Amino acid sequence: MGKKGKRLVSSDVDEEARSSRRSTPTSLTRPISPPLKKRRLTPPAELQEVPDVLEGLPDEEAAEPEESSRVKGKSVARDETGVPEESHPQKLSEAGQSSSSQRIFKSPFRLTRIQDLPDELNKDTITLKDMLGDPLISECWEFNYLHDIDFLMSQFDEDVRSLVKVNVVHGFWKKEDPHRLDLQTQASQYQNVSLHAAYLSEIFGTHHSKMLILLRHDETAQVIIHTANMIVRDWRNMTQAAWLSPRLPLLKAPQQPVPDQDLKVGSGQKFKVDLLNYLRSYSSHRQQTCKPIIDQLMKYDFSAIRGSLISSVPGRHNVNDDSPTKFGWAALRQALKAVPIHPGKSDIVIQISSIATLGPTDNWLKNTLFAALATGRDETYKLQRPKPDFKVVFPTPDEIRRSLDGYASGGSIHTKIQSAQQAKQLQYLKPILYHWANDAPDGAKLGDDVVVKEAGRKRAAPHVKTYIRYGNKSERTIDWALITSANLSKQAWGEAVNSKSGEMRISSYEIGVLVWPGLFAEDAVMAATFLTDTPTTSEDTEGSGGGGGPVVGLRMPYNLPLQHYGPREEPWVATASYAEPDWMGQIWPGGNDE
Asked: Could you tell me where the Basic and acidic residues compositional bias lies (predicted)?
């Protein structure tokens, strides 16, 4: 390229994040009444409307809020997940019932708002302030890989920011780790912030889970599982997604343990057992990191949750034992055995932001991960049912160059193709690699008659991770969908099982939620939705195969149909250098391997 560009180095990105985190947006100042404690076990209906601080939002979003009977000043009504109802323009009635006789359910997954995209591409999206800005939050447990304490604290309501008990769980367990020292410096500015280091027994493991657990003064709790690091860059212009539980009330009476064999996959009871077992994995002979939040969550009723928790924790795990909670690919396989799937030809699409070293052959990919993903409930069809086709969605350098943040967003997206082993890996991955944005000039042609369904995120580089099984090749129905922190790696999902011991090894902490249509209503179908969380068109609700039956939306983060890589295209590699300037005139020198 003859055109010269500005050199962008990783330190520029880090400095930008640091400077951004020091700036705390101002909010509306208004008096707030102290929250009442021990009102009753089941919160009254009026407490579903709680105040919200509309910090830093454009004028057109700061709609005139309703008055709250509990808190003086301005407030907005919130839905069952605690999110302002303005994030859901089309409100449905109870149990997903629409104004017609057809039952419609909003997407269980939410996309996050993109700062530099227009409102029409941000419909039904959610912000971190939507999640944390409720002044009734009394305690927050924040689990993540990267943390910016100043940024995190700026998202709480300004009137209670210094009162919320904030627990930050990270994976920098070595005392001399620069990341740990930086966190300690940041946390020292806040008397209400406590740091907890998760011990990692595996040298290549990370604490990669992304989760918020919130306790409120109205005696409800909430679990939020998402895909973003707790840093400014991830919440600004990168595609992310979140699953939010309903607000969980206190149990009306002590709950008797449910026998393991009676725990139904997808139920709130099973979700609670799996979450508590995940949290127990942080304990060691030296510390009981999560015991306080475990003791608290034991008191709450999880029955409103619809979803299966899929998590990974470091260590060696027997995949054949009778423990109720499995981890890694074994957890996914266990859950999918309860999920009905269509008998015809289908696609399983793996969309991730990192591809690790998987080996010079595709043995692990096909025989371990793909085999787990291909599991379904109807094993009677095992011989007749066609095997699903697998597709891996990952951006190319061209897509990173054209993204909203240009090359800067590429620092969060990783794979390697330089070594001989990595080159062999690329050879077996190349036939199944597809673009994030399906408008790549060098990609395979879609055809003139193809109708593209726009998700509105093609210029927002992907940090989201989704695994979706489409019920048919036309991608009109969805058998199941998973949102998770887990990328395409052995460290996240676990090694192949040892045939002698029955054990498999996992290196990292990961967490995600699996959903499927049958969780929401009998005979329901799940349909992909674009630019909205709600199935709204006849094509969504009837052409998907619903025939007027219940329909569950699934908000899509990428366009359909997918576009295959062209013959000369390769995936983006953050450690490689790129001399062609991005749309902002910057070049990428490589070497960024954070």
From this structure: 76-91
